[in-house]
Amino acid sequence: MEKLSPKDRPSRTKSYPVWEKLNIESNGLYGEYFRILAQRFNELTRMELFVAVLIKAGLKSWEIGQKLCIEEKTVENHRNSIHRKLQIRGINLTVFFAAV
Question: Is 66 left (phi over 0), alpha (psi -120 to 50) or beta?
Fold first, then answer.
């Protein structure tokens, strides 16, 4: 995937043009997985769901940050939030989402 420009970054208004470009939420490669996660884990925000999809794709935090034009620390914050909300302890998110 190509690196996204700052104009494609997710805005705080919940409009995410970047996701269309990544083709995650629509009919892209992980579109069905996104929908499954959204239904099963409704406590996750859309951003956390998108990070989860990219985790499922095998990307590391720094790679996710590059793809989404956000800092690696922000990705780590989302990962920690996913751990907390889903009450996942003692298991890697990559392993967890691979089993979902």
Answer: alpha
